[in-house]
Specification:
By secondary structure, this protein is an alpha/beta fold. It is about 30% helix and about 20% strand. It has 2 domains: about 55-300 and about 415-485, TIM Barrel; about 305-415, no CATH class. Strands 1, 2, 3, 4, 5, 17, 22 and 23 form an 8-stranded mixed sheet that branches. It has an 8-stranded parallel sheet with strand order 6-7-8-9-10-11-12-16. Helix 4 crosses helix 5, helix 5 (about 170-185) runs parallel beside helix 6 (about 215-230) and helix 12 packs across helix 13 (about 390-400).
Length: about 550
């Protein structure tokens, strides 16, 4: 008798092949049979009209802290994800000597936009070494399969303490210790090594995150461990300092694949050709036999903000007065004709590095406070201005002022053009991921990137067939990161499965919920068209709610393909 049979589903195996109408039988957590069967099962589901695919593989998440208090790793399982990689950009919490725990969490709270009170209240410290952290994950039993990077900033902090963010060069002994910690992490099942040179990655109080001030020589010394071990992948938030040439040379030196993650590869209407140059340089590296890829986002990079904290606009000089204003004086600033005129001038002559270039179609009403304004949610400021025949600058500030600055807006400043983004999604150097799930919780939730891809890029725009679209978010990312057995529905492989309705599958807008330790709030999304998610043959979400398990079915992944 099988544990589960899903009957009459359109079955997509994750390899890009056309679907087959079939039954799928599961025993002991694995696919036992694909095809008609007359055998019985403990549970049978009629999936008539629905599609069954492998679970989504999310290579870029930040659940390192959250998983210690939330084994579901929400909201990812509810959004079809069955395998996640944590520790990206070199930010995490292991290894961490006990005296440095608060330092580690304070930096993490800023660089990944996490609620510090939630971190200090919620993180369950049962470890100091990387291996002990992996053991704790196994005891926790995450709901989804989880792989962990060895992190540059984490290891630099563990070895150098506060000096990690101020001292460029470690002592020779400190560098050797860091190398030893990378070796230890790899021996204890790390998927690879992650780092960041991004100047945007700042820690607590504005200090640099440790890896961002490290030398190229230090980076090469630590990545050399991957070559020494002949396994693992290298992921880096490169900024401008970690150029494709440097990344390719590390691939050449180590013999291991490397992955670039930077906003510079995203479509930006202010410099629309920049991202394409990164993809072309990676394509040339691939032709030379060097595996260099780009972690590619399929969604607009969205920023949730209000005018009480207009962080996405502060680089405009008109907002200098806002930085020093008190909460009581802010409304007066925003009403000021002088301020608004200065902002209009900024938008006509934007400086380099500005997020918002003045296209008001890229700022939408996210969440209105007053019932009469809720009909405006999802509409752009430009659309509202056109409707009323007014200047969008005035529409923007007047709406916020009418709600005591409580209005939430959503800015979509990168990847905001289908024509600009589509080529990157189809490029041979791209790997579709970059959800940042678990991070930047106050402003965004891109954990549903896979369902967005299926709804927008497959169904709504037709850039991909459903078979090919599923391959791009299942077997392809698993293969790129050398994750064995995942991303495919084939006999003998783990039963990581997503049952869904292709006609309506998608994600909601970000929804604020107050469920973090210490009473903190975060943004989440919910799914539409999802009928069930299974990890290793165990249902973790039924399309509406999580299924309660005292021990989650996800495996802590610690063995990878070479």
């Amino acid at each position: 008798m099988y544990d589960l049979i899903i009957r009459n589903a359109q079955v997509f195996d994750g390899t890009g092949l056309p679907p087959v109408l079939s039954d799928v039988s599961v025993s002991n957590g694995r696919i036992a049979h694909i095809g008609s069967t007359f055998e019985a099962a403990h549970e049978t589901i009629d999936a008539q009209g629905l599609a069954l695919m492998p679970g989504i593989v999310d290579l870029h998440t930040h659940y390192d802290a959250q998983v210690t208090w939330d084994r579901t790793m929400s909201p990812s399982p509810a959004l079809g994800v069955t395998t996640a990689v944590i520790g990206n950009c070199g930010f995490g919490i292991a290894p961490c000597p006990a005296p440095l725990r608060e330092t580690m969490l304070k930096n993490l709270s800023v660089v990944e936009g996490m609620d510090l009170k939630a971190l200090l209240t919620g993180v369950n410290w049962e470890f100091e070494s990387f291996g002990q952290y992996m053991d704790q994950l196994r005891r926790i039993g995450p709901y989804i399969n989880t792989a962990v990077f060895a992190g540059h900033s984490v290891i630099r902090t563990a070895v150098m303490g506060a000096d990690g963010s101020s001292k460029v060069d470690p002592s020779p002994e400190q560098l050797q210790t860091m190398q030893s910690m990378v070796r230890d992490a790899m021996d204890n099942g790390a998927i690879g090594f992650a780092s960041s040179f991004s100047p945007n990655h700042s820690g607590y109080g504005g200090i640099p995150m440790p890896s961002t001030i490290a030398s190229e020589a230090e980076l090469r010394a630590l990545t050399s461990v991957l070559g020494e071990k002949k396994k693992g992948v290298f992921m880096m938030a490169t900024g401008t300092r970690g150029s494709p040439d440097i990344m390719e040379s590390i691939v050449e030196d180590t013999g291991r694949p490397a992955y670039i993650s930077t906003v510079l590869t995203m479509y930006n209407e202010g410099n629309p050709s920049l991202g394409a140059t990164y993809y072309e340089r990676c394509a040339q590296a691939l032709k030379r036999g060097h595996e260099l890829y780009i972690l590619t986002s399929c969604q607009p990079l969205s920023f949730d903000f209000s005018l009480t904290d207009p962080y996405v606009l502060l680089s405009h000089s008109a907002f200098d007065v806002v930085k020093s204003a008190t909460a009581d004086s802010l409304p007066g600033v925003y009403r000021s004709v002088e301020f608004r005129d200065a902002f209009r001038k900024n938008l006509k002559e934007p400086k380099e590095g500005i997020l918002f270039l003045g296209n008001w179609r890229h700022i939408e009403v996210g969440q209105a406070m007053h019932a009469e304004n809720q009909k405006l949610e999802g509409q752009s400021i430009q659309a509202l201005a056109d409707l009323q025949g007014l200047d969008p600058v005035d529409i923007f500030f007047d709406l916020a002022l009418s709600e005591n600055l409580g209005t939430h807006f959503v800015g979509k400043f990168f990847n905001n053009s289908d024509e600009g983004v589509a080529p990157s999604l189809k490029h041979p150097a791209s790997v579709i991921t970059l959800s940042d799930a678990g991070a930047h919780l106050s402003y965004m939730c891109d954990a549903g990137f896979g369902l967005y891809f299926l709804s927008h890029w497959v169904r709504d725009t037709g850039h991909f067939t459903l078979s090919e679209g599923i391959r791009k978010i299942t077997s392809e990312p698993a293969d790129r990161f050398r994750i064995p057995e995942r991303g495919r529905l084939q006999v003998g492989l783990p039963a990581d499965m997503l049952l869904f309705n292709p006609a309506i599958v998608g994600i909601s807008k970000p929804i604020p919920v107050q469920d973090l330790p210490g009473g903190g709030s975060r943004m989440v999304r919910t799914a539409t068209g999802v009928h069930g998610v299974w990890v290793n043959g165990v249902k973790v979400h039924d399309g509406h709610n999580y299924v309660d398990h005292p021990q989650g079915p996800g495996q802590v992944l610690d063995h990878f393909n070479l």
